[in-house]
């Protein structure tokens, strides 16, 4: 998948008429890393994707959506077997069904055991997180919250936050975000 991610990052960067250096300054990611990402020579963490999406003015799900666009109802069956699943250090599955200009962005995210905490991030909008399986730890403004299976949290995404897996098992959760445009 990181081939598609790199292509999308490069296309969007060029569309916005930004250099690698300008994106580097906006994200605090090295020019070398960004270049390697664009050329599919490395993968990105969720934190890096969030920084890049903020710098390029898109929701992170932009990098994981399929090109299909429709305003018709969409059913996605057996999502765990779907080919539209992105694997990196985490699994990210866009559940919007290709809806054109959705008001909110539903995603299934699977964090692997011990997934790195990295740094808190913030972005425009709101998030609703529902834990389907496992125990998810969320840091919101330096406060840790533990969400077990079937727990949920609603938060203002502009508040610094991060998701992490402190367990030995994968965690599956739904993240529904809205930018409030």
Automatic annotation (TrEMBL):
SUPFAM superfamilies found in the cross-reference section: lambda repressor-like DNA-binding domains, RmlC-like cupins
UniProtKB keywords: DNA-binding
Protein name: XRE family transcriptional regulator
Taxonomy, superkingdom: Bacteria
Domain HTH cro/C1-type: 9-63
Gene3D superfamilies documented for this protein: Jelly Rolls, lambda repressor-like DNA-binding domains
PANTHER family in the record: HTH-TYPE TRANSCRIPTIONAL REGULATOR, TRANSCRIPTIONAL REGULATOR
InterPro entries attached to this UniProt entry: Cro/C1-type_HTH, Cupin_2, Lambda_DNA-bd_dom_sf, RmlC-like_jellyroll, RmlC_Cupin_sf, TransReg_Diox_bact_type
SMART domains on file: HTH_XRE
Pfam family, one: Cupin_2
